[in-house]
Amino acid sequence: MCSYGNVEGRFRDNDELRYSLRALECYFPEHGHVYVVTDDQAPAWLCPSDRLTVVDHKELIPAESLPTFDSGNIESYIHRIPNLSERYFYLNDDVFFSAPVNLSDWFWDGGIYVTWSDEPLREDATSLENACRLSNQCGLHPLQ
User: How far apart are CA 46 and CA 30, in angstroms?
Assistant: First the structure.
């Protein structure tokens, strides 16, 4: 294990989830349904509603792979969330919106994803292959 992987305070709760959800509501009111994925550890203040559902790892991840706290592993099962939209945002609890945003900041009409980059798209073999796959399999066309 890395020396920084199990330090004191790594899993301390500083109410990040509470503030992340408040910021989401304040700055991105047109967000869709929120799914909080947790290992049976939802905070007492978190109340499921018609806009928020708590999803336990057990509902997504095979029993032989549990318990797990590896975010990469957990993320690989996000697509199994019941009723998850085709287009969704994935955020960790320490991500906070700090200014107003709209769906149009990420999606154009017709559901085309908006990609922002300070660098031009690379035109190497891997990028071209991925662009072809996106186009052929998904009807998506990378833009520069």
Answer: 20
